[in-house]
Specification:
The protein contains eleven helices and ten strands. It is of the alpha/beta class. The protein has two domains: 64 residues; 207 residues, Vaccinia Virus protein VP39 (Rossmann fold), CATH 3.40.50.150. The strands form two sheets. Strands 3, 4, 5, 6, 7, 8, 9 and 10 form an eight-stranded mixed beta sheet that branches. Strands 1-2 form a two-stranded antiparallel sheet. The longest helix has 15 residues. It binds S-adenosylmethionine. It comes from Bradyrhizobium macuxiense. Methylates the class 1 translation termination release factors RF1/PrfA and RF2/PrfB on the glutamine residue of the universally conserved GGQ motif. It is an enzyme of class 2 (transferase). Keywords: Methyltransferase, S-adenosyl-L-methionine, Transferase.
Length: 296
Amino acid sequence: MSEPADNGSQTVEAARRALSARLQAAGNDSAELDARFLVGAALGLDLTGMITAAGRAITRDESNRLDGFAQRRLAGEPVARILGMREFWGLPLTLSAATLVPRPDTETVVERALELLRAGGPIDRTLQIADLGTGTGAILLALLSELPNAHGFGTDISEAALQTARENASRLGLADRATFIACDYASGLTGPLDLIVSNPPYIRSADIAGLAIEVRDHDPHAALDGGPDGLDAYRALIAQSVSLLGPNGSLVVEAGQGQSGDIEALMTAAGLSPAGPPKADLGGIPRAVSACRLPR
Ligand SMILES: C[S@@+](CC[C@H](N)C(=O)[O-])C[C@H]1O[C@@H](n2cnc3c(N)ncnc32)[C@H](O)[C@@H]1O
């Protein structure tokens, strides 16, 4: 058993409040939430556990662990990196240094993809899908969790990211329906595919230096850099995807702010038909741009 901390035997609740105040004083605008997650992780408690244990004294080991987490957060490391995991579409995903932290906005891509598949028939039909630049496997695994008879291909240029995606697929019981391939976007795939999704790197190279420290210093550069105008990845993957889509197959990609019009133009120029206006995320930003391959 570990010894209680000798900081006046701070309780779980007092430790949470103290950390929240410390983070807030440092300008963190999600201090309250961050403190909850970090105290929970340092003490091995879920949210209910934190409530029931609120009045107990924290041990010295717990206090030291929490202080380590606090230092990392104050230095700009995102909570998800400190925890080593992030939930996406309700699925717990392990992170690694090679993977982007999946963002809630990206769930808009999953929603649009499911809307298009539902419009084409029962959701439990046999489907072949692909996620280009899969990272943790977030979009692919979210879709496989909703599509019981789909098989999915996840590609990435990073072998280390693919290893993390494979581990996530196994832990979620989806590995038998997921194949991970190291290649440039869709270059290692063969069709026909019913759906291709992607959240590619889309930050303009010159804008990367000005990103928040949480992103610039902690997300992998290969997950961010979209080239001089931010559109390099779209040019590559749209061109590759056209011939892989089956009749009525759909392509759904995530767009950065202000990019949806340019992406639609690239899709149309490649011979695809827009599948409705871009779907907005919860902040109202057009986020999921989609197009279909019409039957010839
Ligand atoms: C913005 S991250 C998205 C990760 C994940 N899909 C998500 O939404 O959380 C882009 C991903 O594309 C990968 N990537 C970058 N260039 C690539 C390329 N040429 N071919 C395949 N994947 C690439 C990166 O390694 C990274 O995992």
